[in-house]
Amino acid sequence: QVQLVESGGGLVQAGGSLRLSCAASGSSINAMGWYRQAPGKQRELVAFITSNSITIYADSVKGRCTISRDNAENTVNLYLHMNNLKPEDTAVYYCNIVVTGGKNYWGQGTQVTVSS
To answer: What are the pLDDT digits (tens) for 69-88?
Structure first.
């Protein structure tokens, strides 16, 4: 069983920065990622990182976001550093974990609001 705890969202002005964090406890954690969902839109991938640190970014955030992970005892921490934020980045951001066997787990979501 995997438990996810997200933090780091908030209100920021356009051009500002935020760092999102997700602490994942449990075993057999493989790939990890951040997704977001804006009002009236489908949930979309923001960034993804594999167990051997290969990263994938959505075109809309390339060059502005960095995903990273680090391992602590019984916990894997996932981060998303976001720079030069734009109003269109406003959304609820979700942490996603894929464990061995392919099962997905989702965090509770954290709101990011970028004012113009």
So the answer is: 998 777 899 999 999 999 99
